[in-house]
Amino acid sequence: HVQLVESGGGSVQAGGSLKLSCVVSGYTDSTYCLAWFRQAPGKEREGVAAIDWRGFTSYTDSVKGRFTISKDNTENTLYLQLNSLKTEDTAMYYCVKGSSRGQGTQVTVS
């Protein structure tokens, strides 16, 4: 039973930064992919960034060069560094593994 618990969201001004964290537990597979999704009110869920067990990363075009996904295997924690934030980045951000996701953490940019 995979569990994901996000933290680190908040309210920032445009141009600011945040770092999201997600503690992942309950999985045993050695080959995996972890991802961050986001969903803004009235919009569809959007994949933001992903990282696999080898450390290979991918990003949606709108966040390339601004967001960085990383993981700490010793702490079973997934991170998303958000820099140069824009108002359009405002959304609930979710940590995802397979069909499991966390409760989300809100990011609001004004």
Radius of gyration from CA coordinates: 13 Å
Taking the sheet with the most strands, its summary is: 7 strands, mixed
Please count the helical segments: 0
Helicity, as a percent range: under 10%
- Which overall shape is indicated by the principal axes computed on the Cα atoms? globular
Determine the structural class based on helices, strands and strand pairing.
Answer: mainly beta
Order of helices and strands: EEEEEEEEEEE
Average pLDDT number: 95
Terminal residue distance: 37 Å
Count of beta strands: 11
Q: Which runs of at least 5 residues are low in confidence (pLDDT < 50)? A: none
Q: What percent of residues are in strands?
A: over 45%
Describe this structure in words.
- The chain has no helices and 11 strands.
- By secondary structure, it is mainly β.
- Strands 2, 4, 5, 6, 9, 10 and 11 form a 7-stranded mixed β-sheet that branches.
- A hairpin with a 6-residue loop joins β4 (33-39) and β5 (46-52).
- The radius of gyration is 13 Å and the shape is globular.
- The model has no long low-confidence stretch (mean pLDDT 95).
